[in-house]
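Dear colleague,

Following up on yesterday's call, I've attached the two folding results inline so they're easy to grep. Please treat them as preliminary; we haven't cross-checked anything against experimental data yet. The first protein's sequence and structure tokens come first.
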Amino acid sequence: MAIIGKGLHSLIPPKSQTEEVSFPKVSQPLRVKKESVFNIETNKISPNPMQPRQEMDRDDLSELADSIKEHGILQPLIVTKTVRDLAKGQDVEYALIAGHRRWAAARMLGLPHVPAIIRDSTEQQRLELALVENLQRADLNALDKANAFKRLHDEFDLTHQEIAQKVGKSREVVTNTMRLLSLPQEIQEGLRSNKISEGHAKMLAGVKSPQTQKALYDEIIQNSLNVRQVEQRVREVSVSAHKRKIFHDPEIKKIAGQLTGYFGNKVDIHRSGIGGKVVINFSDKEDLGKVVKKIIK
């Protein structure tokens, strides 16, 4: 197509060109220093089935396409090669490991070739590298991250600590991100559509009751609560739930009733953690004296 004009040579480096490429540390054998960059037919490349990013913003992709049109593809794609034997010769195809957005933008521009590094990889390595590459971009949806972490955990038996080491995050970040997948579907959809932020969602994930999560979610939407305000509301709800649990504790209620019968005055028991306090109510000084006599009797 004629849309790339004089920028064609900058978009497609010569086949003989070799560049030093740096990339994140993932499982072996992907830790190499220098690799050759080849021009590969764009329509011979298929998407990475392990790609964490489920959706791409159309406007963002258009901006990337404009940048590529102006400056070229500055960082090569990374692909794996598949050769199929045919009746007459062989057919070669490529699957993306990293560079999904660059590939999509190149297709949008109609580029016939893209610069790429060919690399052997396992399914785990393809997921790791695609995840690490996407984590370098701040706009990767939290649920896409959570699902990618979950796949590394479920399909490849990686612990949260091992996942954290591979993607350069703390174990707590990995664990808290994966907890987002336990949220009710409506809240997950709200997070994906940016009705709430990742910070909001992590606060809600700390609430045990799905009904309470939903109620707090509605509060966030209706009152435009920020993350700090949601944190305060979660704290209030947790304290209230704890008090209700204590109030309905049948053993505590039974003991309070026995003490009330013994003193002839209403007795309240307030729990706090593993301790608490006993409150004996009295009406006047004479009534207090009767209570004291029974205590020291």
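Below is the second protein, in the same order (sequence, then structure):
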Amino acid sequence: MSWHEISITGSKSEVDTVTSALEKQGALAVTYKDGEDNPIFEPSPQEVNLWDKVVTTGLFPIDCDLEEITLYLNKICPTCFISYQPLVDKNWTTAWLEHFKPQKFGNSLWVCPTQSLEAPDACFEGTVVALDPGLAFGTGQHPTTKLCLEWLASNKLDDKAIIDFGCGTSILAISALKLGAMIAYGIDHDDQAILSSQMNAEKNALNADQLKLYTSVDPAIPACELIVANILMNPLLSLAPILADLCLPGGTILLSGLLETQADGILDCYKAWFDFKPYCVDNGWILLVGTKRPLIA
């Protein structure tokens, strides 16, 4: 089956009117995207921010009356720009594989979609992490995840305990385990992330004693030698005392999910506990690597 996408570009003050008009004409779904290039990085909890210019798109059955719908929308939204295009059906469950290819980090760490590992000519030397993201964040394609994976692949992890805070798919925790870490604790408040992490652990022959998953900080989680938190600036600021407590003296903390312009704010917040090396940069995104100072008797 195929559909029509009808898109209306206008100001954010017109979004409610546009949405109502699309729904009255029988839209099966309505989505929004930035009409210019003004990303919104960190809205507050429960806050829905829209861009100044918004493209509102309605999904309609292929046999809808485009002329009638367009006439109605022009009447309701005379100042908006209207466009439409057909949307050809495809296997959306696997469509993401077009963009998720095997990736190499460091000298020998590979992150691969499971389908690529099943190919007859599949041949990956080194440590291989099989990963399918599901609805969770983390495939290794974003610069912040890349930076964390490069660090993990380039450092000795043998027998270490790791905490992956905001684990998403658990790509970082699973990679650390496959690279020699003894145990990993994944923390994420999103149930979809926990489900995705469990599935990815199974794909990599890891059991629940190796990757322990939690939806919040739990007393059962001990302080560890390595903390990885690839989230965003505001959560990193509010979580600073908790992450510091979870890191053993002499341990390492990796902080990412940050733009280069946000480095100073994070460094100022964490300097009470950690000494940081010069940060790594990838396309404007950074990784901060700190060592927790020993406790003073």
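For the second protein, one point worth flagging: Residues 3-89 form a domain with the Alpha-Beta Plaits fold (CATH 3.30.70.120).

Best wishes,
A.L.
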